Fold this protein.
Amino acid sequence: MNRIQTGLFRAGLRVFEDLGFMLPTLELDREQAAATFHSAVSIDFNGPVRGTLLVVINGEILPALASNMLGEDDAPSALRQEDALKELANVICGNLLPLIAGTAAVFDVGEPKVQPSENAPDPNLHIAAKQAIGLEKGRAELLLFLSEFPAG
């Protein structure tokens, strides 16, 4: 596993555990692997390297994830679920960038945006790493697209 893949893996697991209060798994069971697209959020960044982090949710896990993040017993509204997913992507990105570019690197991080599909948001970017994380009866897929691979 290279530094970029390791960073994506560590940032994703940490955020789903600490912010989402879920128990992520790297081995997907049959139900998690078969879960279909539910929603996606992307976040662009510029700095020593330009890229996009895409967080894709597969299966019906977003209501529980948003409830956990917001500390609510009932499932929040669809809009609040979307906001929770945007915040999750923002925190993953914030944890990931120092892991792949170093703590001294400075980045301009854009606002998270809802994506209509699980496809790459910018065809000029190349996939640098992909990580599937099992979550209850679904999965999250973290895809990191970069304009170039950072040195090191």
